[in-house]
Amino acid sequence: MAPSGTTSSATGTRASKACPETVMFLRYEEMLADPVGAVRELARFLGVPFTAAEEEAGSPAEIVKLCSIDTMRGLEANSKGESGGKFIKFPHQSFFRKGVAGDWRNHMTPEMARRIDAIVQDKLQGSGLTFASSTGLAAV
To answer: From what superkingdom does this record's organism come (predicted)?
Structure first.
């Protein structure tokens, strides 16, 4: 997460290191691997860490459950109706895919993936961030 208006990944990384209390980077793959830990980390970052009583009651896990892709996909507001403009309409359900890392492989060709990898690598150049490319982990 970065403050609105941040346009450079390198600037964001420097800001995150200089002011970790105001800039947080959270990778999707990391959230999938440990969603409860990610919710705890986000709560601490926002200045509202879970209390011992909330932890004991299972609040972090409950938040993960309430915010899961399956729960969001199942809400009537997200499963019915359409969004879009005057000429093109998209069913609300089209905004939800599998919610798993790597599903892009089912929607892009290898050439598309290579092009996106090149763009991401260019944009992150010098930032110190890494990303999972279509050919493995890429450091930039």
So the answer is: Eukaryota
CA atoms within 13 A on the CB side of 16: 17
- Compute the distance between CA of residue 32 and CA of residue 74 in angstroms, rounded to an integer: 19
Mean pLDDT along residues 16-36: 80
Model confidence at 133, pLDDT cuts 50, 70, 90, reads: low
CB 27: neighbour CB atoms within 10 A?
14
**Cα dist from 99 to 19, 56, 68, 72, 126, whole Å:** 31, 28, 9, 11, 29
Question: Using CA atoms, how far apart are residues 57 and 103, in angstroms rounded to an integer?
Answer: 34
Distance CA 33, CA 87 (A): 40
Q: Which amino acid is at 36?
A: V
pLDDT for 54 equals 98
